Amino acid sequence: MMKHINNITGMKEEIAQLKAAKKTIGFVPTMGSLHEGHLQLVEKATQQVDVVIMSIFVNPLQFGENEDFDTYPRDLANDLQLAKQHGVHQVFTPTADDMYPNTMSVTMNVQRGADILCGSSRPGHFDGVATVVMKLFNIIEPDVAYFGMKDAQQVAIIKQMVADYHLNVTIVPIPTVREEDGLAMSSRNVNLSHMERQEAPHIYKTLAEAKSKALQGHFKTVAQLEEWVNHTLKKRLVLGKVDYIYFLKFPSLTRPSTIAGSAILATAVHYEKTRLIDNVTWEQ
Ligand code: PAF
Fold first, then answer.
1. Which residues contact 81 (CB under 8 A, 6 or more apart)?
2. Same-domain pairing of 205 and 275
3. Which residues of 24-63 are buried (b: 16+ CB within 10 A; e: fewer)?
4. Mean residue pLDDT across the chain
5. Which of 110, 129, 204, 251 has the lowest CB atom count within 10 Å?
6. Is 231 a catalytic residue?
């Protein structure tokens, strides 16, 4: 039987019992509207820990003023069913009032890795992510937490937070799950129009092509690689507007001087009602 807990006090009581029984806890934090990408996180967790806990909380703190907090898709009934079918043991759905009863007096401020990629066009976003993840980690006290690599910058920042604050949790990144045509699965995909949905797979196709060209030594410099992606995406996308294209070292998210090494090529594209992100990573 899957348990559904909707308040922090109740969740902490459950955790105390699990800890007393020496159960290992795997945590899958989500904002709901579950898709195969989330379910892969659950799948991995069920293989590695005794108890899988999923949180569903659309965190207001990580949305900017003009962002899609109100239109972010929500479907709790379906989420609960999917979670249950896929072996989640406990679902935690706190309210915003429970999570943020007062304006917080101490918040997380991400110092490194937040001023590039999504951070530059979404100021404060990663502070909001780090704050809620720190709170959720303190409530759930997981041994392992699972994050999708579609949000590679989030993975890098959370890993850094765990190291900086000596948190006793292992972060397990899970590869991006894609639709058959290559589009990265995202809760936001439902906000694409039919025409936008037809076009959006070009984002991944272009990144994958750039990766294969880079691995074949096609680009001499980082600037050449980024310019090729920029030019190709602009040619292929009629409805989408490219927000950024970055080639960075991963996981440090610093600018590399050459294409060699462990890297991420990431982009964000604006559509009318939503913004999509995607990336490819590689070692060479
Ligand atoms: O990746 C997400 O869905 C969110 O950023 C997270 C980690 C659940 C924090 O709100």
1. none
2. yes
3. ebbbbbbbbbbbebbbbbbbbbbeebebbbbbbbbbebbb
4. 95
5. 251
6. no
Q: Is the pTM of this model over 0.90?
A: yes
Q: Pick the atom of ligand 1 nearest to 187's CA.
A: 3
- The residue type at 242: V
Asked, for residue 181, whether it belongs to a domain, the answer is no
Catalytic residue among 35, 38, 86, 89: 38
How many angstroms is it from 154 CA to the middle of ligand 1? 8
pLDDT digits (tens, 9 = 90+) for 150-205: 999 999 999 999 999 999 999 999 999 999 999 999 999 999 999 999 999 999 99
Q: Residue 284 pLDDT more than 80?
A: no
Q: What is the pLDDT of residues 47-87, one digit of tens each?
A: 999 999 999 999 999 999 888 999 999 999 999 999 999 99
- CATH code, domain with 251: 3.30.1300.10
Strand order in the sheet with 241-249: 241-249, 262-270, 275-283
For ligand 1, pick from 33, 56, 133, 159 the residue to mutate: most ligand atoms within 8 Å of CB.
133
* CATH number where 40 lies: 3.40.50.620
How many domains is the chain partitioned into structurally? 2
Whether 179 is covered by a domain: the verdict is: no
